[in-house]
Automatic annotation (TrEMBL):
This protein's pathway: Amino-acid biosynthesis; L-phenylalanine biosynthesis; phenylpyruvate from prephenate: step 1/1
Chemical reaction(s) catalysed: prephenate + H(+) = 3-phenylpyruvate + CO2 + H2O
Keywords noted in UniProt: Amino-acid biosynthesis, Aromatic amino acid biosynthesis, Lyase, Phenylalanine biosynthesis
Tree of life domain: Bacteria
Name this protein carries in UniProt: prephenate dehydratase
InterPro entries: ACT-like_dom_sf, ACT_dom, Chor_mutase/pphenate_deHydtase, Preph_deHydtase, Preph_deHydtase_CS
Record domain ACT: where: 208-285
Record carries keyword Transmembrane helix: no
Keyword Amino-acid biosynthesis: yes
Domain Prephenate dehydratase: 19-194
Organism (species): Paracoccus pacificus
GO terms of molecular function: prephenate dehydratase activity
Length: 295
């Protein structure tokens, strides 16, 4: 059974300056997450999640901002496959409310807008507003990319659904703000670094890890028993196939607590006994919005 060793304590990341990589164009919601969570850092756009990870691994950026799940649409496809193999470590999480704005070329009144372009997912989140104002949805490349295209086309009848940040970047007027149907729509991001940091302690810490159970009867049930008996709250447990075969299953989990807490240490020890592999991906403070979102 392989298990990651405890990393040496790292420096606090609260005042880090440098570069943080994200997937998408400038003005994407991942870009907004970078500005909120690391306002002093330069945000670096990348085409894919793999490029984000590689940018950090090569040292061209200090941190990666990766979305892992949305409160409305569930987990981000493929991201859990990338995390264990990335060689990066989770040092923080960021919960970002998805507020959608209607953006148009300067001087356009709302009643002139006939079409709104955005990613399919975002179009589905503004149905009530679109119906009320008789605006036809148009599928675009993504949210920030749609804002860029609207600015380039400069057609008063065509608007974009994107973040207010995208409107600022591409010089568009914000005709309406927070028009999403669900006001609690939230995306959870993980901030990842080349080096781990177990040094921080706070009122609520989170630990994320992946594991594979041994080929024994009721192995998963027995592996989970240690968390129940030691009073450790598991906030997430997801399974996914690895290596393209049905018999190889890996589990991703988030728990409350720090590996040095006695009850967490005992629970992880019991998990390790019933697992063929166990890798801690990171230990980090819970975002203040976590309690509000889960409550």
């Amino acid at each position: 059974m392989t298990q990651t060793p405890a990393p040496t304590p790292g420096p606090s990341h609260a005042a880090v300056t440098g570069r943080i990589a994200f997937q998408g164009e400038p003005g994407a919601y991942s870009h907004e997450a970078c500005k909120r969570a690391r306002p002093t850092m330069e945000a670096v756009p990348c085409r894919t999640f793999e490029e984000v990870i590689e940018t950090v691994r090569k040292g061209d950026a200090d941190l990666a901002m990766l979305p892992v799940e949305n409160s409305t649409y569930g987990r981000v496809a493929d991201i859990h496959h990338l995390l264990p193999e990335s060689g990066l470590h989770i040092i923080d999480e960021a919960f970002v409310r998805v507020h959608i704005s209607l953006l148009a070329v300067p001087g356009t009144p709302l009643d002139q807008v006939r079409e709104a372009m955005s990613h399919t997912v975002l179009l589905g989140q503004c149905r009530n507003f679109m119906r009320r104002h008789k605006i036809h949805p148009v599928t675009g490349p993504d949210t920030a990319g749609s804002a860029r295209l609207v600015a380039e086309k400069a057609e008063p009848g065509l608007a974009a659904l994107a973040s207010a940040l995208a409107g600022e970047i591409y010089g568009l007027d914000n005709l309406a703000d927070k028009i999403e149907d669900r006001q609690n729509n939230t995306t959870r991001f993980l901030i990842m670094s080349r080096t781990p940091d177990f040094s921080r302690r706070g009122d609520q810490m989170m630990t994320s890890f992946v594991f594979r159970v041994r080929n024994l009867p009721a192995a998963l049930y027995k592996a989970m028993g240690g968390f129940a008996t030691n009073g450790v709250n598991m906030t997430k447990l997801e399974s996914y196939m690895v290596d393209g075969v049905f018999t190889a299953t890996q589990f991703y989990a988030d728990i409350e607590g720090h590996p040095e807490d006695i009850n967490v240490a005992r629970a992880l020890e019991e998990l390790a006994y019933f697992s063929s592999s166990l890798t801690v991906l990171g230990v980090y403070p819970a975002d203040p919005l976590r309690a509000a979102q889960l409550g």
